[in-house]
Amino acid sequence: MKAANSVFSALGTTVFTVMSALATEHGAINLGQGFPDDEGPDDVRAAAAKAIIDGPNQYPPMMGLPALRQAVATANKRFYGLDVDWQSEVMVTSGATEALNDCLTALLNPGDEAIIFEPAYDSYRPVIEAAGAKVVAIPLEPPHWSLPMEKLEAAFSDRTKLVLVNTPMNPIGKVFTKDELGRIAALMERHDAYAVCDEVYEHLVFSGHAHVPLMTLPGMRERCLRIGSAGKTFSLTGWKIGYITGPAPLMEVVAKTHQFVTFTTPPGLQAAVAYGLGKDDAYFAGLASSLEAKRDLLAKGLRAAGFDVLPADGTYFISADFRPLGFNGTDEEFCREITVKAKVAAIPLSAFYSSPGAPRHLARFCFCKQDAILEEASARLKAYAQGIAA
Known about the structure:
Aspartate Aminotransferase, domain 1; 44% helix; seven-stranded mixed sheet; single chain; four-stranded antiparallel sheet; 2 domains; alpha/beta; 13 strands; 15 helices; Aspartate Aminotransferase, domain 2
């Protein structure tokens, strides 16, 4: 039999699947997978129910419902001052992962290079490589995750087609500063490159920090494809509603990719997200503040257990150094151990690296859970740590 696609056939079972299965087997609290344990805003779900009952429920426009595309354009203006033509510069997708696939596939040709920052969301590399392009990974170093400018400058070349910028950043909660983004922008202009901007956590940014879309910087409006996610903004990850904002010439090609991936997205859910994007400022501020409180609650519990906790300025995730507990194995061994013995599951941070030299002493915990769950997980980890010390 002839071989299947070499990129995807070479992929193993993801660490998320492995750790979730282990958590289920041992009855562990699962702080590995990144999804909230509530059901999202009542009014947004009610809007979806009404839209489904009222209809229509047949194919919506391929680019997305006009109401949602208009809402995305309005949100770009409201939050970031961006003037966007909803008819030619906004498209709806079946989730942000599809949006990433559409953007990367539309831009890349065989032989191109795409720069990513690691640790990185795990879908980036296989999609880039399946397009025949080469991944150039720039590792960020703990604990502060600052941008290594010399390495970044060296990574750009005449073959660089795009840079993939994820801010706020999964899995480490880094929020890129305006200065860092400006340096990326300067290199993009120098090398005539594009940016695919994964900004799904745009509204999950904590005190002292602000989300700055790369698209808002001088010269970047025509070079950026900006991806958002209703799943993250409304804690409705199962709905799989994403959206892309970009210049019309690029969006025309991205739309041609989308039409052969999913073509359309459920209209009732689109209508509800359009409603949700119009919610008042208090909703968006409350979303960030509630998650910041959960971050602080888990961080306090991890410190009490003996971990060194790294900064997390956005997203659902916080990383912790387990070496102070006296565990001398790898991060994967540690995450397996606490799943079995402490009954708390986490993700080894090295799973988000493909470049050499990945740190092996950090675990990623998800804090978008009920407070009681976070407190119980913290207590279990503290008891586990005390057992090691004994």
